[in-house]
Design goal:
The complex is a heterotetramer. Chain B is an alpha/beta fold. In chain B, 40% of the residues lie in helices and 20% in strands. Chain B starts with a helix and ends in a 25-residue tail after the last strand. Helix content of chain C is 47%, strand content 13%. In chain C, the strands form three sheets. Chain C has a three-stranded antiparallel beta sheet with strand order 1-2-3. In chain C, strands 6-7-8 form a three-stranded antiparallel beta sheet. Chain C has a two-stranded antiparallel sheet with strand order 4-5. Chain C is globular and about 65 Å long. The chains are: A mainly alpha, B alpha/beta, C alpha+beta, D alpha+beta. Chains in contact: A-C, A-D, B-C, C-D. The interface between B and C is large, with 40 and 45 residues.
Chain lengths: 330, 205, 372, 146
């Protein structure tokens, strides 16, 4: 029996994606701790391995060997299914992300749409996990997550629609190819299409933070208010999978921002494009996400909604109208 | 001057119980003793004058009167002794013999009255102390009231000063003093089921 | 059974905030009746770290109670030391040499700065910002090093004695304190740029948790809580003790009454305390640090005595009743946070949970001091 | 409208200022001490648990078993016992026990001593698994230190 080469290719990519996602989750924790340490003028992890590089391994072993407690009174099905519901869509989103010219598992014409569709499922996982764990803090957190995500999908999607209007495609590969040449061709500096593109990037970035529940929008976890929010009752690897899902979502968010605004794998000067440029930009964005987390206090729930409805949505709408007008005129 | 205003106002309630204190020695400016029934009235006056509540606490004076009696007896005995000795010396100086000295001593000693033991047992008391102060001008007023130890009851002032709520609960915890009319006189600092009052002098660990 | 049993309906639920909760700083428990994320009613439940210091005092000699005072408010231990030694000195009529008073004020004010710095960090941590906490700790460590070089310990100092202080400062202390003040002066703009002016923090604190002047009076709130509500009340000015009348400093007062006002009061107080330390170092007289006539065994005359001091959290008063023996007959410790927290139940009604936590943080709670 | 835009711009600016501060610290050297690997010198006045002082003349202790420290201790963690000196006045120390589990490190005992017989140790690594390990026999400790 011989397998179709496409199937083999897909299998290889699937293994690669899962490995990439898991490795990223593990080493982003390391990066987060190390970066937080240095921002706070400490060293961060340093005992396990050189520079603490084996720390994620030790953490992983610790999490896996912990007993999986299902507390009394929880909904056992929802409680167990929720971490998977967070992890799986995150992995699925990786499928269409082009890391290099040929480094993409499946080049789909509506790749952008698919990523946003899967990103919304992430909320469902948190909601079910929080509801299923039957903890008052978790339920408050669930309510926060849902309305937060609903509020932030809107400006994010409006911004993306603006971008699709400019590029005329939803194929991520093509979006990157259009930004060839140099950093002046990237969408973030595509001032001919709309003078507000840098602002649009900022809006997208803020929405991405909110979507992935990162500080300063980490109201769902909010350790000083809700203990650990939706994860309060989760022990061991249940928590671990949630955690990996969160970090996978950050990687996806940063990747999408890189593709849409920062020219994907293109070199800023038009030389030697390739996956290294993609990773460089993506990790820079992730670095910024972590950097932001260790700088700001948390916002409150209503000021977050205020920000979304009073500032981000009007500006992104204005940008949409401006862009469509510019496209019509020129 | 807050002090004068409050003195005039409080003098209506408790005319003879006002005592001005020296701040450098006592830490307060005015020391007022009222009866338990006058507490609410006095506190209302303080409230009207814009005072804030600093603290409420109690003092258990268990054995105070007994000790005072003992002290008085000891003092009288000492006085009698001294008087006797003096009388004896006088007689000796005058050239009287030993018997005359003794007789004079006895006579003089009998002349000093020694307080008699009371027929009834001493009435034991507890004291509730309220501290008030003023934001605008320094004026600490100490309000005291004495209640019988067997049935310590004081009307609450938590409807005038909501802050007194916790102070009264704490005082109830420690001394078992009941604040009549208090909305929720449950243990505050002690465990929920505590039935002891640790600051009573007959409570021993 | 609880104080607000009658307010419960089917629409609300009870949330137990604490005794183990990251925002309650220790072992405070607050029973919240919540309607969604809105607080319908709140009742702080105390006593989880109650140690009955007042009874301990009745079973110890006057001097033996000294270590206890530093263990009530472990963040501003020296002010509690100060309050206790002052009342006993008042009762026993002990004169304190001038140099000792200066040393008391210098160390107490340094301790106040360290207390405010820790509050600042912990408060921002309550609001979700982590890094300012460690920056504040970095500065606080310098103070702890200074105080350790004088007192020998880093937290529960027990440095004052009836009639003076335990030992004199060493030759490096004055220079070290000046260097520290210079360093902190340079760091304060950083704190303001990073935290105070941050739009997120401003949105979280401005107009959140208003406490009116009248409410402060009714609940007996003192310290930065009262000063944030427009009440110019500072025991150091109001009822001057020690050498404070000889020093020039301002009492920061903000009239807004919100959490931001209380925050600003404390930040300004750090600067004022630096001023006080500098002046006191300049004026520091030579001489003994212990009264020559201070008796070894204290037996104050019969009577009761009160003394209040301004701690980082408000007016701390000690009332002692002496029966003339070598142990206190009664020792009442009036802790400021006890009164400050008592208004929380009323103030947080109708607030959202995160705002109520911002309010709670701005009250600057130290639970061992409330529970005593 | 102008206020609205002004607030957005000043707010965003305050956020960038914050980022600038944290990144500056990111590149500055760390200030922490890696404790078990590095240690700091203890200050000379450090108040650790107490220790008996050696009398340089006799090689024994300076303690005359007056019991002042025992009386001064608020927590009652000091027990001093002595026996009659052979052929002389006064007592010699036979046992000096410090129950460190009760000690609050206040230092009142050292202050109460009129003979300079006790002092603070600089020992701060005080952690253990057994409670009994913290009932110190100070006389034995002094002899072992030789």
């Amino acid at each position: 029996m011989s397998l179709h080469p496409e199937v083999i290719r897909l299998l290889i990519f699937l293994v690669g994606i899962i490995a990439f996602a898991a490795l990223n989750a593990a080493y982003l924790v390391w990066l987060e701790r190390k970066e937080a340490g240095h921002i706070q003028r400490r060293i961060g992890p340093k005992e396990v391995g050189p520079f603490g590089l084996l720390q994620p391994l030790a953490d992983g072993i610790k999490l896996m060997t912990k007993q999986l407690i299902v507390p009394a009174g929880v909904d056992p099905i929802l409680f167990k299914i929720a971490p998977i519901l967070v992890m799986v869509p995150a992995i699925m989103s990786f499928v269409t992300i082009p890391y290099g010219e040929n480094l993409v598992a499946r080049n789909i014409d509506i790749g952008l749409l698919m990523i946003f569709a899967f990103a919304s499922v992430n909320v469902l996982g948190l909601l079910l996990g929080a509801w299923g764990s039957r903890n008052k803090y978790a339920v408050i957190s669930a309510a926060r997550v849902v309305s937060q995500n609903v509020a932030y999908e809107i400006p994010m999607l409006i911004t993306v629609v603006t971008l699709v209007m400019i590029t005329g495609t939803m194929n991520l590969h093509e979006i990157v190819m259009q930004q060839q040449g140099g950093f002046w061709n990237w969408n973030i500096l595509n001032l001919a299409a709309s003078p507000l593109m840098p602002v649009a990037f900022l809006i997208f970035f803020v929405c991405m933070l909110a979507e992935t529940n990162r500080a300063p929008f980490d109201m769902a976890e909010a350790e000083s208010e809700l203990i650990a929010g939706a994860f309060t009752e989760y022990p061991g690897m249940g928590f671990g999978v949630f955690f990996m899902g969160e970090y996978a979502n950050i990687v996806i968010g940063a990747s999408v921002a890189t593709i849409l605004f920062l020219g994907g794998w293109q070199c800023p000067f038009g030389l030697f494009p390739g996956v290294h440029w993609f990773l460089l930009k993506m990790y820079f964005l992730i670095f910024t996400v972590i950097w932001i987390r260790w700088t700001y206090p948390r916002t409150t729930f209503y000021s977050l909604l205020n920000l979304s409805w009073k500032i981000l949505i009007p500006i992104s709408f204005f940008n949409l109208i401006l862009t469509s007008a510019m496209i019509k005129v020129f | 001057m807050k002090l004068n205003a409050i003195k005039q106002a409080l003098a209506v309630i408790a005319p003879e119980a006002l005592a001005e204190a020296e701040h450098a020695k006592k830490g307060a400016l005015l020391d007022v003793t009222v009866s338990a029934t006058q507490v609410v009235e006095a506190v209302s006056v303080l409230d009207k004058e814009g005072f804030f509540i600093e603290a409420i606490t109690g003092v258990d004076w268990l054995g105070e009167k007994e000790n005072a009696h003992k002290d008085a007896v000891a003092a009288a005995k000492k006085k009698a002794q001294d008087a006797g000795k003096a009388a004896a010396k006088k007689v000796a100086d005058a050239g009287g013999d030993e018997e005359a000295q003794k007789a004079a001593q006895k006579e003089a000693e009998a002349g000093v009255a020694i307080p008699a033991a009371p027929v009834e047992p001493f009435s034991e008391e507890m004291e509730v102390v309220y501290d008030f102060n003023n934001f605008a001008e320094f004026c600490r007023v100490v309000l005291r009231t004495r209640v019988p130890r067997s049935n310590p009851e004081v009307p609450t002032i938590s409807h005038i000063y909501p802050g007194a709520n916790w102070h009264e609960r704490e005082t109830h915890d420690f001394f078992g003093i009941k604040f009549v009319g208090h909305p929720y006189l449950a243990p505050l600092l002690l465990p929920e089921d505590a039935d002891f009052h640790p600051l009573k002098k007959d409570f021993h660990v | 059974m609880s104080a607000f049993a009658q307010t419960q309906t089917n629409e609300t639920f009870v949330l137990n905030l604490g005794p183990q909760h990251p925002a309650t700083h220790g072992v405070l428990r607050v029973k919240l009746v919540m309607d969604g994320e809105y607080i319908v009613d709140a009742e702080p439940v105390l006593g989880y770290i109650h140690r009955m210091h007042e009874k301990m005092g009745e079973n110890r000699t006057w001097a033996q109670f000294m270590p206890n005072t530093g263990r009530m408010d472990y963040l501003h231990a020296l002010a509690y030391n100060h309050g206790y030694v002052s009342v006993v000195e008042r009762a026993a009529g002990i004169e304190v040499p001038e140099r000792a008073e200066y040393l008391r004020v210098i160390t107490t004010e340094l301790n106040r700065i360290s207390s405010h710095l820790l509050w600042f960090g912990a408060f921002v941590l309550d609001l979700g910002g982590f890094s300012p906490l460690l920056y504040a700790f970095d500065d606080r460590e310098q103070i702890l090093d200074l105080l350790e070089s004088v007192t020998g310990s880093r937290l529960t100092y027990c440095y004052f004695r009836f009639g003076g202080v335990y030992n004199d400062i060493d030759e490096n202390f004055a220079a070290g304190a000046r260097a520290f003040i210079k360093r902190l002066r340079e760091r304060m703009p950083m704190y303001h740029a990073l935290v105070t002016k941050n739009i997120i923090l401003m949105k979280r604190l401005q107009e959140i948790g208003p406490i009116s002047e009248e409410m402060c009076r009714k609940y007996g709130a003192t310290g930065p809580v009262a000063r944030g509500s427009g009440i110019n009340f500072d025991v150091r000015k109001h009822e001057p003790y020690s050498i404070y009348p000889e020093l020039r400093f301002d009492v920061p007062v903000y009239t807004e009454g919100d959490s931001m006002a209380r925050y600003m009061v404390r930040m300004d107080e750090i600067e004022q305390s630096m001023r006080i330390v500098e002046q006191a170092l300049d004026k520091l007289p030579e001489g003994p640090v212990m009264a020559a006539k201070a008796p070894k065994i204290i037996k104050p005359a019969k009577g009761d005595y009160y003394h209040a001091v301004e701690t980082a959290r408000g007016s701390f008063g000690v009332r002692v009743v002496s029966d003339g023996s070598n142990t206190p007959y009664r020792l009442k410790l009036r802790s400021p946070t006890f009164s400050n927290l008592s208004l929380f139940g009323e103030a947080c009604r109708g607030m959202l949970l995160p705002d109520a936590l911002a309010l709670m943080g701005s009250l600057d709670l130290v639970i061992p001091e409330i529970d005593r | 409208m102008i206020d609205y835009l002004k607030e957005i711009i000043s707010g965003t600016w305050s956020l960038f200022v914050g980022l600038g501060i944290t990144i500056k610290y990111f590149f500055q050297p760390v200030v922490t001490v890696q404790y078990p690997r590095q240690t700091l010198p203890m200050t000379p006045r450090f108040r650790g648990h107490i220790e008996l002082v050696r009398d340089e003349e006799t090689g024994g202790t300076k303690c005359v078993v007056c019991g002042m420290c025992q009386k001064a201790c608020p927590s009652g963690c000091i027990t001093v016992e002595g026996e009659k000196k052979e052929g002389g006045k006064g007592k010699v120390l036979s046992e000096y026990t410090l129950d460190f589990t009760k000690c609050s490190l206040c230092g009142l005992c050292v202050e109460s001593c009129n003979f300079g017989a006790i002092t603070f140790s600089k020992d701060y690594n005080l952690a253990g698994l057994r409670k009994e390990a913290y009932v110190f026999d100070l006389k034995k400790r002094l002899e072992e230190k030789k």
